[in-house]
Amino acid sequence: MDNSNSFKTLMYVALGLIIVIVAIIFLTKDKKNADENNVIGEAKVESIDILQLESFPVQVNVVAKGYLPDSCTTLGDIKQSYADNKFTITIESKRPLDAEACAQVIENFEKTISLNGVAGLSKGTYSVVVNGVIGAFTLLMDNFVSETDPLK
Description:
By secondary structure, this protein is α+β, with helices and mostly antiparallel strands. The chain is 20% helix and 45% strand. The strands form 2 sheets. Strands 1, 4, 5, 7 and 8 form a 5-stranded mixed β-sheet that branches. Strands 2-3-6 form a 3-stranded antiparallel β-sheet, with no helix packed on it. The chain is flat, with a radius of gyration of 26 Å. The chain starts with a helix and ends in a 13-residue tail after the last strand.
C-alpha cells in the first residue's frame, strides 16, 4: 500500500509539472512573438529636419515627416545606431496580418527623435539617415564638458 501511495503522489507531481511547463511555454510564446501577427516594415519618410538645441552639451533632435499607407498601419519601433560619424535611424511600421478592410487613406506622421550619443562628440560634421533620407549637422566645438575648470 505504501508503494501505491508513493506512485500516485509521483504521478500527481509529474502531471502538475507537465501542466506548469505547458502553461509557461504557452504564455512566453504569446509575449515573445507578439509581432508574429504583424507585418513589420519601414515607414515612408519624406523629409527630416535636424534641430540643435541651445544647451551644453548640445542636444540634437531629428524631426521625421512621412506617411503610412492605410488606416491599419501604425508606427512601430524606432531603432538608432551610430558609427563612423553617421547616425542611422530606422522607423518601423506595423500592420496586422489579418487587416483586410483598411481604409486606403494616407496617414501623415511627424516624429521627433532625440539622437543618442551626441554628448561627448568632437567638433565636426555628422550625417543622419532616417529610412534612407539623409541630412547632416555640424558641431562647431567639442560637445563634452571638460573635467578641468578653465577658471581655476
